[in-house]
Amino acid sequence: MSTGIFDIDPWAVSVRGLDPARVRLVESVMATGNGHMGMRGNFEEGYSGDSHLGTYLAGVWFPDRTRVGWWKNGYPHYFGKVVNAVNFAAVRIAVDGVPVDLATVPCSDFEMRLDMRAGVLTREFRCRVAGVTLRLRLERFLSVVTPELSFQRVEIDVLEGEGVLEVTPLLDGDVHNLDSNYGEQFWAPDPTWGVGASALTFQTVPNPFGTPRFTVTAAMEASLSGLDETSRWRDEWSVGTTWSGPVAPGSAVVLHKTVAVVTSRDHEPDVHLATTARLLGDAALQDHSAHRAAQAAAWAERWQLADVEILGDEPAQQGIRFTIFQLLSTYYGEDERLNIGPKGFTGEKYGGATYWDTEAFLFPMYMSIAEPEVAQSLLRYRHRQLPQARHNAAQQGLPGALYPMVTFDGVECHNEWEITFEEIHRNGAIAYAIRHYTEHTGDRSYLEGEGIEVLVEIARFWAGRVHRSSSTGAFMIHGVTGPNEYENNVSNNWYTNYLARWVLRFTSATLSELSDQRRAELAVPLEERERWTEIADEMYLPYDERLGVHVQHDTFLDKALAPVDAIPEGDRPINQHWSWDRILRSCYIKQADVLQGLYLFADDFSQEQISRDFDFYEPMTVHESSLSASLHAVLASSLGRHEKAMELYRRSARLDLDNYNQDTEDGLHITSMSGSWLAIVQGFGGMRVGADGLRFAPFCPQGWQGFGFSVRYRGRVISVQVGPESTEYRLVEGDAVDIRVDADVVRLAVDTVVRHRNVS
Question: pLDDT: is 334 or 248 the higher one?
Answer without folding.
Answer: 248
